[in-house]
Design goal:
alpha/beta
Length: 191
């Protein structure tokens, strides 16, 4: 265990508490290392300069992205849940900008921070919790904020996003990671 990471049991208790208290939290455990590695590989972070993360939670994916990013890159991590956001504030990296906010307002959030086109957007936010119009609107905003050739990587419990992704992106690839609780699909959509 590295000194910058809390013990695993602390993560689990925080997730369980957030899950019980906030209907917008979909997981009771952090993403497994297998899911994180599959998602990071899908992001293709070599040469990437700007990454936006939807639903950073306690920062399991955030930490791994920072490990893979080049020194002059930046990561904008957005988390809605107050308790999970407090846990994120322990992360210290000059490339990281933490935002407590609702990803459905990502266009405003990024405009306020002067963030231009992103190379990658990654999402652990449970799109199934949004209404159909909210899903479509968020995917349209996501596609608009990506540079041409940019990638949207979403890890989700269900396949409901596939038809919507095909409406907004030129190419969609689906993978499945069984070694996670619960198992997740990893969608990679290219603009």
């Amino acid at each position: 265990m590295s000194p910058r990471e809390p013990r695993r049991s602390q993560f689990d208790l925080g997730y369980i508490k957030a899950f019980l208290e906030d209907p917008g939290v979909a997981a009771v455990t952090p993403s497994s290392r297998y899911l994180v590695e599959r998602a990071v590989k899908a992001m293709r972070l070599d040469g990437v300069r700007t990454v936006v993360e939807y639903g950073a939670a306690r920062g399991v994916m955030t930490r791994r992205i920072l490990e893979a990013l080049r020194p002059d890159a930046r990561l904008i991590a957005v988390e809605f849940n107050a308790e999970l956001f407090r846990g994120l504030q322990a992360l210290r990296d000059p490339r990281l900008a933490l935002v407590r906010g609702d990803v459905r307002e990502i266009d405003r959030i990024l405009a306020e921070r002067g963030v231009g086109p992103a190379d990658v957007v990654v999402s652990g936010v449970p799109f199934a919790f949004f209404s159909e119009p909210e899903r479509r609107a968020l995917l349209a905003k996501t596609a608009a904020l990506l540079r041409p050739g940019g990638r949207f990587v979403a890890y989700q419990v269900t396949t409901h996003l596939i038809p919507l992704l095909k409406d907004h992106f030129s190419k969609v690839r689906t993978q499945f990671e069984l070694r996670n609780l619960p198992p997740h699909f990893v969608f990679t959509a290219t603009k």
